[in-house]
Amino acid sequence: VFAHIARGPEDPILGVTVAYNKDPSPVKLNLGVGAYRTEEGKPLVLNVVRKAEHMLVNDRSRVKEYLPIVGLADFNKLSAKLIFGADSPVIRENRITTVQCLSGTGSLRVGGEFLAKHYHQRTIYIPLPTWGNHPKVFTLAGLSVKTYRYYDPATRGLNFQGLMEDLGSAPSGAIILLHACAHNPTGVDPTPQQWEQIRRLMRSKALMPFFDSAYQGFASGSLDEDAQPVRMFAADGGELLVAQSYAKNMGLYGERVGALSIVCKDADVAGRVESQLKLVIRPMYSNPPIHGASIVAAILKDGNLYNEWTIELKAMADRIISMRKQLFDALHARGTPGDWSHIIKQIGMFTFTGLNSEQVAFMTREYHIYMTSDGRISMAGLSSKTVPHLADAIHAAVTR
Ligand code: PMP
Prior knowledge:
With 400 residues, the protein is α/β, with parallel strands linked by helices. The protein has 2 domains: 14-44 and 318-399, Aspartate Aminotransferase, domain 1; 66-301, Aspartate Aminotransferase, domain 2 (3-Layer(aba) Sandwich). The protein has 16 helices and 13 strands. The protein has helices at residues 14-22, 47-58, 73-84, 89-92, 103-118, 133-141, 160-168, 192-204, 223-226, 228-234, 267-285, 291-301, 303-334, 342-345, 357-367, 387-399, and strands spanning 29-30, 96-102, 123-128, 144-149, 151-152, 157-158, 175-179, 208-213, 240-245, 257-263, 350-352, 369-370, 376-378. The strands form 4 sheets. It has a 7-stranded mixed sheet with strand order 2-10-9-8-7-3-4. The longest helix is centred in the C-terminal third of the chain and has 32 residues, at 303-334. The radius of gyration is 21 Å and the shape is globular. The chain binds 4'-deoxy-4'-aminopyridoxal-5'-phosphate (PMP). 4'-deoxy-4'-aminopyridoxal-5'-phosphate is lined by residues 34, 103-105, 131, 179, 184, 212, 214, 245, 247, 253, 258. 4'-deoxy-4'-aminopyridoxal-5'-phosphate binds next to helix 5.
């Protein structure tokens, strides 16, 4: 009965790693997936995570019982505090519900299904381009996906005018997906002034903000600074959703730990919204896993561990910034034609190089460098040792 089934395509992002793994070349380089690597090219488990895990393992009072449908209560409170700020009015007024979900993706999916079921507008606008999984997650959640202009290939920066025009002509009440910081794949974020204009426009048209916060702490190196756009919207008294992921900023990728928060008009509404979130989650996966959320809660609630975390996080962000500088310098030294200043201007884990799919294919074929076909490279996958090889490949690709 399954014989007729055609083979499905590889995921465009995760498929890059599949191809990389098959390549026997000793110089191969995987710049596809957005996972942090050390200067030695190794995955990193933060020291503070190891410490927290050690504490958890040695605590004999801990058991493996099911968590509630909405997850670990401490984790949820601390996650809201992390994104909205300890003194946030939405927390003080208790008009927020936060539920633990399966990392960023799961939080987006639960939020999407909640909106499809209970919100009066089913259309979500996502930036063009955006993380490749967004349209699939929201379509399967039951929303109808449209795009708004975001990136300008000519300037390799933000198409602010196009963005404002498209949000301005979206139907009243439409949902707008916003990357909280370190936009993936472009590395291009609005300035604080532009965020303020976006906020005013969106509130004047009752557009519903749905923030995707997958890189808090990775853009500027400061957790508070990277949360500013979300806090700006939270401060004006309006509603919003935010999906948080701890994959990147705590390096907890495979633990699948994240949170969905919905800011409501008052505490009573928030309580009812939470009751409906439980009805979305229960038949989907019943309740979330306990281990990753316990690690995050242990770190967020202990002053010393929290400080240690911020230092390790800043070190990751700084290493990425230094890779940007090194790659830029290496292209400059080779006299590679073109303006490569966007490599140092763009923010977060990725550089949107501007290389086209043909150039990408050439670099993979001739230089064993793996990346998504849109020319996005993960700066976190680079090291001082591999920058020259990448610069050689880019130089050859653009001068061919
Ligand atoms: N949103 C964006 C913009 C991302 O880049 C990612 C990870 N690549 C995610 C969400 C979700 O990641 P995860 O489910 O691993 O938290």
